[in-house]
Design a protein that fits this description.
Blueprint lengths: L4 H11 L4 E5 L2 E4 H17 L7 E5 L4 H13 L2 E4 L6 H11 L3 E4 L16 E4 L7 E2 H7 L14 E6 L9 E5 H14 L6 E4 L6 H4 L2 H7 L2 E4 L8 H7 L4 E4 L1 H9 L13 E4 L6 H9 L4 E7 L4 E5 L14 E2 L3 E6 L12 E7 L5 E2 L3 H7 E2 L2 E10 L5 E6 L4 E3 L2 E3 L1 H9 L4 E11 L3 E10 L7 H8 L11 E4 L13 H10 L1
Parallel strand pairs: 1-11, 3-4, 3-5, 5-6, 6-7, 10-11, 10-12, 12-13, 13-14, 26-27
Antiparallel strand pairs: 1-2, 8-9, 9-19, 14-15, 15-16, 17-18, 18-21, 20-21, 21-22, 23-24, 25-26
Helix pairs in contact: 1-2, 1-3, 2-3, 2-5, 6-8
C-alpha cells in the first residue's frame, strides 16, 4: 500500500469526526468538516481538468484554503506549490515558469501583482467573491464531498517549496508523500511536549509551517492558524485557545517579548516553544525562561521536510545555543571537505541521511546531484559537536543570509545592484541584528565620476526584488577584496562589519 497523505485526513475524520482540527480567523472546523472540504477541492480540481502530477499554486495568507489544497490535491495526486506572497512580480513570474503551475489560487489583495506577470493558460481561482478568476467558495459549493479515488502517493511529489533563490533563478524543493510521512513519524518519536493545541504563526509557504500538517493528523492535534503574524495578539491568544506548543522564528520571539502585555501574560498552558529558521540568541532563551517558557532550538531544512536537530527541554538552558541531537529517524554527521567525519570539537559540514530528505530540486538535476551524494544530503551548513554529542551551528558554508526567518541569497541582490549604471562592483552580506537575526548590507564600488545615493539604490531595488531582500545598509568603498581567481572574499567583509 502506497502512502497518500490526503488519506490521513480521511482516516482522522473517521476516527475523530467531531474533534476540532483547525481554528483560523474566527472560523472553526472539525476534522470531518476539513475532510469534506478537501474532498470538494479534489473534485473541483478534477472538474477543471487537473490530473495527477499537475501543479497548483497558492498565493494567499494563511487560511483554510491551504488545508483544502494540501490534502485535497494529495488525494488526486496533484502537487501543491505554496508561494511567498512577499515576492516581487518578476520573482513570481520565475516561479510560475519553473513550477509550471496549471492553476493558481490567489487572494484578492495579491491580485495586483499578477498585472505584471505573464499568466498564460494558468487557471485563476480567487478566494474573494469579486476577484479575478473563478470564486474559490463557489467551486467548492458545486463539488461533491464524497471520497475521490486516490491517485499517486509514495515517492510521487506532494509539494514544491521554493527556498534559496540561487543566482540562476528559483530553487524548488520537491517533497514526496513519503517525505512528509516520515517527517511526521520522526517528530512524533522525538518531541513529547507538544500537547493537543499547536499555534502556527508562520506563513504556510515555509516548511516550518506546512511540514506540521501531517503530524497534526497523526496526533489529532488542533491547529490554531493565524493569517498573519501579530505579536501584540499573542499574550491573549495563548490562554484563549489553551495553546500547548508554538513554532516560531527568533525574530518573532523578539517581537512577542517586546509587545505590550508580555510581562503579565498567562503562558501556563505552553509546554514548549520551538524556535527555528536561524540561531536563537542565548539571552532570548533566558528571557523567556524567566517568564516560565521553555524555548527549544530546532534546526531543520526545507530539504528534509523540516526535522533535523532539536534540543530537549532538559538541556534547553544547560546547553543554550545548541540545536541538540538528531530526530529519531535521522542520521547526521559532520564531515570535512574530503567527506571524512570530523571528531568532536571540530567544525564540519552537516550531512543528513533520512527517509524525509527531499526527492530532488525541481528542474535542477545538477544541483540535485551536488546535494544528494552517496545517500546523504550535503547541507552546506557548518557545525561542531561537544563531548556529549550536542550540535552547535557555527556558520553557513554558502553565503545564505537568514533575516526574520526568510532565506535570502546574496547573488540575486547583487545581480540587481550590478544593473544600476552607477555600480561597478557589489557584494551583499548579512550582518548580525538583534531582532532580525541578520540584516542585509551591500558593499559597493561606484563607477568613476558617478554619484548615487542610498535612497536611489533602495528605489532601484523596489519592484525588482522582494522588499525584505532590499539592503538596509549601504557602504561605498574604493575596492572589494577578491582572491587571485576573482572570487569575492566575503569572510573579510563580514569580519570588518563585525568590528565596525
Amino acid at each position: 500500500m502506497r502512502i497518500n497523505v490526503g488519506e490521513f485526513l480521511s482516516r482522522r475524520a473517521l476516527l475523530s469526526p467531531d474533534l476540532p482540527g483547525l481554528i483560523c480567523e474566527g472560523g472553526r472546523w472539525t476534522f470531518r468538516e476539513l475532510n469534506l472540504r478537501s474532498n470538494r477541492l479534489a473534485h473541483a480540481m478534477t472538474g477543471l481538468g487537473l490530473r495527477s502530477g499537475d501543479r497548483v499554486g497558492i498565493l494567499a495568507p494563511n487560511g483554510v484554503e491551504h488545508f483544502d489544497l494540501f490534502f485535497g490535491l494529495a488525494k488526486i495526486g496533484a502537487v501543491m506549490v505554496p508561494i511567498n506572497y512577499r515576492l516581487a512580480p518578476p520573482e513570481l513570474h520565475s516561479i510560475f515558469q519553473d513550477s509550471g503551475i496549471d492553476a493558481l489560487v490567489v487572494s484578492p489583495e495579491f491580485e495586483h501583482a499578477l498585472d505584471k506577470v505573464e499568466i498564460g493558460s494558468i487557471k485563476l481561482i480567487s478566494t474573494g467573491r469579486s476577484g479575478r478568476g473563478e470564486p474559490y467558495d463557489r467551486l467548492l459549493e458545486r463539488a461533491r464531498d464524497s471520497e475521490p479515488l486516490l491517485s499517486a502517493g509514495g515517492d510521487d511529489e506532494l509539494a514544491i517549496l521554493y527556498t534559496v533563490w540561487a543566482t540562476s533563478g528559483p530553487k524548488g524543493v520537491a517533497l514526496s508523500h513519503n517525505n512528509f510521512f516520515w517527517a511526521a513519524v520522526s517528530i512524533i518519536a522525538t518531541i513529547h511536549q507538544i500537547g493537543p493545541v499547536f499555534l502556527l504563526p508562520l506563513p504556510l509557504f515555509h516548511i516550518g509551517s506546512l511540514g506540521w500538517l501531517p503530524f497534526f493528523l497523526h496526533r489529532g492535534t488542533r491547529c490554531v492558524l493565524t493569517p498573519r503574524f501579530d505579536p501584540e495578539s499573542f499574550p491573549a491568544l495563548i490562554p484563549k485557545e489553551e495553546v500547548t506548543c508554538v513554532g516560531m522564528v527568533p525574530t518573532m520571539l523578539h517581537q512577542v517579548k517586546d509587545a505590550p502585555g508580555f510581562a503579565d501574560a498567562d503562558f501556563s498552558s505552553l509546554r514548549s516553544v520551538l524556535s527555528y529558521g536561524d540561531a536563537t540568541p542565548v539571552e532570548l532563551i533566558e528571557d523567556y525562561s524567566r517568564s516560565g517558557v521553555k524555548v527549544r532550538q530546532l534546526y531543520g531544512l526545507t530539504e528534509t521536510a523540516g526535522p533535523a536537530l532539536v534540543i530537549d527541554s532538559e538541556h534547553a538552558l544547560i546547553k543554550a545555543g545548541s540545536c541538540g541531537l538528531p530526530f529519531f529517524h535521522t542520521r547526521i554527521q559532520l564531515v570535512d571537505h574530503h567527506g571524512r567525519e570530523v571528531p568532536p570539537g571540530e567544525v564540519g559540514e552537516i550531512i543528513i541521511q533520512a527517509r524525509h530528505v527531499m526527492k530532488c530540486y525541481w528542474n535542477q538535476p545538477e544541483a540535485t546531484v551536488n546535494a544528494l551524494r552517496g545517500g546523504w544530503l550535503y547541507t552546506g551548513d557548518l557545525a561542531r559537536q561537544d563531548e556529549d554529542g550536542f550540535f552547535y551551528i557555527t556558520d553557513r558554508k554558502k553565503d545564505l543570509i537568514i533575516s526574520g526567518g526568510e532565506n535570502i541569497f546574496p547573488g540575486e541582490i547583487e545581480r540587481v545592484l550590478f544593473e544600476h549604471p552607477a555600480v561597478s562592483d557589489a557584494a551583499v552580506i548579512g550582518v548580525r541584528d538583534k531582532v532580525w537575526g541578520q540584516r542585509i548590507k551591500a558593499v559597493l564600488m561606484k563607477e568613476a565620476g558617478v554619484q548615487v545615493s542610498e535612497a536611489e539604490l533602495t528605489e532601484w531595488c523596489q519592484g525588482r526584488i522582494a522588499g525584505y531582500k532590499i539592503p538596509r545598509e549601504f557602504e561605498f568603498v574604493d575596492s572589494l577584496p577578491r582572491t587571485m581567481t576573482g572570487k569575492m572574499e566575503k569572510k573579510k567583509l563580514r569580519g570588518r562589519a563585525r568590528k565596525s
